[in-house]
Amino acid sequence: MTFRWLMGIAILPLAGVMLSCNDKEDPAPDPGGRFEVIRDNLKGEITEGEVVLDSGTYKLTGKLIVKAGAKLTIKAGVRVEATATEEMAAVRYIGVAQGAQIDVQGTAANPVVLTATDQRPGAWGGLVICGRAPINKGVSAISEVGDLNYGGTDVNDNSGSIRYVRIEYSGFSYTSEKEFNALSLFGVGSGTTIEYVQAFEGSDDGFEWFGGTVVANHLVVTNTLADVGDDLFDWTEGWVGGGENWYGIRTNAGNRGIEADNNSNDHAAIPISNPTIRNVTLIGGSQDISAEPHALKLRVGTKGTFDNLVLANWITGFDVESDESISYVSEGSLVATRVRFENVDIKARGKRTDGGAADVSGVFTEDASATGAGAGAAKPEWTDGWTVGLD
Description:
Blueprint: E1 3-5, E2 19-21, E3 42-46, E4 50-53, E5 57-66, E6 71-75, E7 79-82, E8 94-96, E9 101-105, E10 112-116, E11 127-130, E12 141-142, E13 149-150, E14 160-168, E15 173-175, E16 178-179, E17 183-186, E18 193-200, E19 207-210, E20 216-223, E21 233-236, E22 242-250, E23 258-260, E24 276-283, E25 294-298, E26 304-321, H1 323-331, E27 334-351, E28 357-358, E29 364-366
């Protein structure tokens, strides 16, 4: 199935060109070389105008890149299925470049689903967004997945809007050190809207921020399969955004609930990672210490302000590492208030850069009435209707 142009050249709107689905006929050839959507062969580069996926299922057969000045809109209820591949050069993912926009218009009753035909962790690359907000890796950098530029000076940069979407079975791996996440956010600015997103059974992190200023609310990560690893949430490179209402649960032998870094090569690099995050529930699984079952691993110079947390079924609640992050605990710029622990062996422990132990008990204050994401360790009501795997 394909899309066709709705308007002739003589009446194209100045703001761009919109594509819409036509179920009755094939598109006429487009001599202008504009992007053509083929329902069973979705891939390529969108270089101008607005492309709309408006109903049904589309097969993602290669990388789909939205370039600067272009926009990809995905309507409520649309399903995008990445087809199977084992080839590094043919990995399927959706990338939104600097200056481009994505508009995912899911609803609670009719979410957008980005998934794979091969329903296993690591089957495809997920969604990658690159913006022009500050990072501390340099003025700009190349994304570790997707090879897109990111970073800049625009704290209010707008990469679009993402609402009510599930990203399933992501985490395609190039190497053990280079893997896609479900949602990868590289230098994304605060003008971008991200809310009601579930990362389901991905093989790497659910959400990862590489610098930027974006705020992300109502996030869910669900990992139950045996071959799912790494962290539920992760940030690095100077992320100074934040979020509210995060619910992460794993029942397997994966790693941490949150892994938080500033910059592993320069712990004092600016901007310093310093998000503000409220209303969080993190539920652990395996008690295998080799998997580092820490609810929050805070290290290499990150700061952060957390409030209203429920941490359940972890060996360690707060693991704070490196002299810089430990000093931020002392000065109060790395702190968690209203924390409730359930079945957590060690509430907090610290390790200096030289490996010595440090007292970081001041990183948290307890509150037995903390509700976390809304219902303590139970499934919060705001997840009803659009998530899977929580009941």
